[in-house]
Amino acid sequence: MLGKGAAYAQADEAIRNFVERSGIPYLPMSMAKGLLPDSHPQSAAAARSLAIARADAVLLVGARLNWLLGHGDSPQWAPGAKFVQVDIAASELDSNQPIAAPLVGDIASVMTALCDAVAAHPITVAAEWTTELGDRKSRNDATMRERLAENPHPMRFYNALGAIREVLQANPDAYLVNEGANALDLARNVIDMQLPRHRLDTGTWGVMGIGMGYAIAAAVETGKPVVAVEGDSAFGFSGMEVETICRYRLPVTVVVLNNGGVYRGDEAAAGASGSDPAPTVLNAHARHELIAQAFGGKGYHANTPSELRSALVEAIASQGPSVIDCQLDPAAGVESGHLAGLNPASAAAPPAALSAGG
């Protein structure tokens, strides 16, 4: 399991050598994507749930057993799974699960030592395990291709992300910034990364509003094209930084996936009037691209995957600031993070009916 700590360590060669010499399947956390190309044959990303549920031994490389990994608990993880943790901070060991073999040190040194050990004592990965993962990957990949090939009107998340994926495959050196609810959850699975440290997202704390700052920093630091894929709610936290992007003519393209707010944003709030929009509802017909035009950037409005694809190609080629408003079905989306089971039950009892004498 490769975490963002593995990406930060810049120990790419040592990590790749260990993975390939050992033959062990691997899973990248979102900001570790690209340490090895997502197309690497040992990637188990398309069979993530199975890999986690069935593994009896897990090597954590710069990854921590926090809420993103279900704290290492069953049923998400196999009961009795043994964890080996490579981490720079000894204080992180045993924080959520007992660590069977703690390896404290910088990742480059530890992984180099493990590579030497594998050379001296070769590891054999069970063929049954890799075959089981391979079969699940094939089925899930086929399902994903079917979803991406659909062409509903209006668009839904998978259709828009499929168009973005095609363009970014042709621009592997572009940096991807990603924040939102469904915009984040689904982009993580759909958009492959080929290079390390080219994906920036909300990370462990899930903080919304970091997108525009990350995009500006990536553009200034690298001079490479940056594509920020934003949910419309997430974009609202820092959207006025488009002015900064335009003022400095940065090579940043912002794609706003506009489904009118969080989840099913067309639901009305329960209240006395019964007609007020819920607090999470936004204007499903907002034209976010006009923000770029207001400050001298380019604006595009896309209603179909073809229009989105063409707009993104043109925006990246312009090497300047752009915003693409991508119109999605307002009913598109589900609750983010698959965490609905953790939502607290309401403690407020329904008001009792008043009696005639009350």
TrEMBL record:
Keywords: Lyase, Magnesium, Metal-binding
Gene3D superfamilies according to UniProt: 3.40.50.970, TPP-binding domain (3.40.50.1220)
Cofactor names: thiamine diphosphate
Coiled coil start-end: none
Superkingdom, taxonomy of origin: Bacteria
GO annotation terms (biological process): fatty acid alpha-oxidation; oxalate catabolic process
Molecular function as annotated in GO: magnesium ion binding; oxalyl-CoA decarboxylase activity; thiamine pyrophosphate binding
InterPro entries recorded: DHS-like_NAD/FAD-binding_dom, HACL1-like, THDP-binding, Thiamin_PyroP_enz_cen_dom, TPP_enzyme_TPP-bd
Domain Thiamine pyrophosphate enzyme central, residue spans: 2-114
SUPFAM superfamilies the record matches: DHS-like NAD/FAD-binding domain, Thiamin diphosphate-binding fold (THDP-binding)
Domain Thiamine pyrophosphate enzyme TPP-binding, first and last residues per copy: 186-326
NCBIfam families reported for this sequence: PRK09259.1 (NF006721)
Homology family: Belongs to the TPP enzyme family.
Protein name as it appears in the record: Putative oxalyl-CoA decarboxylase
Organism: Mycobacterium bohemicum DSM 44277
Lineage, top ranks: Bacteria, Bacillati, Actinomycetota, Actinomycetes, Mycobacteriales
Chain's gene name: oxcA
